[in-house]
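Exercise (ungraded).
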Amino acid sequence: MSENFDAVDIIRAKRDRHELSGEQIAWTIDAYTRGVIADEQMAALAMAILLNGMDRREISDWTAAMIASGERMDFSALSRPTADKHSTGGVGDKITLPLAPLVAACGVAVPQLSGRGLGHTGGTLDKLEAIPGWQADLSNQDMLTQLEAIGAVICAAGAGLAPADKRLYALRDVTGTVEAIPLIASSIMSKKIAEGTGALVLDVKVGSGAFMKDAAQAGELARTMVGLGTDAGVRTVALLTDMSTPLGLTAGNALEVRESVEVLAGGGPADVVELTVALAREMLVAAGVDDVDPADALADGRAMDVWRAMISAQGGDPEAALPVAQETQQITAGADGVLTRLDALQVGVAAWRLGAGRARKEDLVQAGAGVELHAKPGDTVTAGQPLLTLHTDTPERFSRAHEALDGAWEISTAGAHVPTPLIMDRVSAD
Amino acid sequence: MSENFDAVDIIRAKRDRHELSGEQIAWTIDAYTRGVIADEQMAALAMAILLNGMDRREISDWTAAMIASGERMDFSALSRPTADKHSTGGVGDKITLPLAPLVAACGVAVPQLSGRGLGHTGGTLDKLEAIPGWQADLSNQDMLTQLEAIGAVICAAGAGLAPADKRLYALRDVTGTVEAIPLIASSIMSKKIAEGTGALVLDVKVGSGAFMKDAAQAGELARTMVGLGTDAGVRTVALLTDMSTPLGLTAGNALEVRESVEVLAGGGPADVVELTVALAREMLVAAGVDDVDPADALADGRAMDVWRAMISAQGGDPEAALPVAQETQQITAGADGVLTRLDALQVGVAAWRLGAGRARKEDLVQAGAGVELHAKPGDTVTAGQPLLTLHTDTPERFSRAHEALDGAWEISTAGAHVPTPLIMDRVSAD
């Protein structure tokens, strides 16, 4: 790699709204990985990128440089096509749990590398770790073997994929530069492209509980990511989905596993079923399989069979009782009427404070903690009926969860509730 | 100091173009000094300030917080008023050397805390250190004693004045955030206000050899600094002066001392004399002395007497021969005509490369190195006559100095030369 670049020149160029060349970007990521560019220099560059932007070519080069900082996986030896899903994160978003076995049951392999949660959004690995015995860490060879045999794997991303992203993400987190669309898009897509999936469906969440609070921003992020995937030869589609209210009726680790198993058993909340099936259809089509209806595989138990095999293969006992929190508290409705709003962010923060999430990455989570909903927007409620149940092992946490929930819902005696569509938009390369 | 602030919230506020409160700014500077705010966080904030700006109240609070990070000096016990001058830096800018004794000779004390040079602009202390025996470091008590006895002192700023600025400046230097007018203005003014001068004249340079390349930017910087000084009770005036061509006929340490002594002896280049007298008049008026003409004190040798006393008081021998470089090379005019341009930046870089300046603050400078000019824009030259003489102790440096000078001047056989006025504008609080 040429050393004919200087970090300050590159920062100044972006500061002054110039385009960075592919060579400058490749050098920047490599030099940052090697420690030649210091954290304070990357922080200044990240702020300049946040405020001045990058164009599609720059973001594509930035993503390629992040991929080049680590290893790439290769699933081309598998006997079936691959498809993966990524969600930008929300409250009660357990969709990966029923989705991966469902898509596998329809003939497409799902290599799902997941992470742990931070802040008010839960992490897929935290949820699965509520299952007694289940292990998140697999070797690349074990992952391939399980994919071939069972068709689905959900495991921890190794440190080898896009290591530059790991360092950059930690830096952005403390420097107010998380919210830069070019950096969000390249962070997500570098890991997904390095992972080697053939097709990718993005679930870009919009609303209070999501990272993107409005549809315009979410649409820009979706288009940027679909462009990056397409440029890298991955068939990529994005759905924009509502995250103004929690998905399903649970937010919390074991609580969400329980709800996912209900969906795999053919039941479960309507919104979780709707989104699971819609994402499965997109993944199947993107992987070239358009003659299978995933709703059938959910109804006839094939998805549940794959789930059981997938959990067992990673040491988990799919029949074991799930952990339950030691203490619960109920919150009841204060009036008769229609529930018109139940805020996703506030429910997410309450679940986090009850012990379901972590503030720092070294914190432990409680498997049983979280929030259970007894009504969703649009439901008619009666004064005194249970609205929410709070679960925790540490009852001193209840009071801060109650604070988080202050003003989180509205019960209307007058006007009708106008439901928001769950799937708001679809972005594809065409 | 309240700990109810969070660095990321403050970075985000400025990133999103919000105004920072006085409490937020005071906490930020204090927390940075104590290491609670990390360098990468301050780098992101500095970039946000550079791109989104600060208003006058914010800059004033930022400056006050920098002053509060260290000690303040107090010259109120002196029997005469005080005035100081600050130049934003240029090529051949030796004005402080004749100016400080000249103003002292007119009855106003000059407590000039100076720095060393970095890059293509020379430092006042580097120049004076070319005088055998002269010492830059004085205790606060020695400084006061010398000011009372002689009326002028030029010495190194102690580490105690605005220590937050020192750390912040080093950070800005490596993060592409030097060029933020709020940060430049508060950096300069925090040290000058903490120094305790009663009046201050700013020489804001404009042109290729200056930090500010155009008059609009320089005017904004001048107005910002005059506002800060005025708000802090320091009578402050700024002159905008031309730095498209070097000041005087020398750029280099001993070379500039020699030229300064010529000015004190009643001779010297016209531009150096003009600017020295103009700045002296501003300093005298700002200090409340309006019945003395500094041109007289220059002509009758009183300024030279103060110079000799000032140099001797700091261990220097004003009669000693100045160091001379071991090697010289002459550059001659290639044609007959009028010299219409001689670029300040290119001459400054050549002098730096010859050994007069430093690239890093731990580098040593050569006392004898530099560039001597034999003609200035507007002068008629003849093919073959000397145009420049390069001086260095290390002749292997000549070739890179020649490179720096490529295209640095123009000799016109046709059109007339239109001289730029040396003093371009004046900014005061009224």
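Further reading is listed at the end of the chapter. For now, observe: DSSP finds 16 helices and 13 strands in chain A. Chain A touches chain B through 24 residues (CB under 8 Å).
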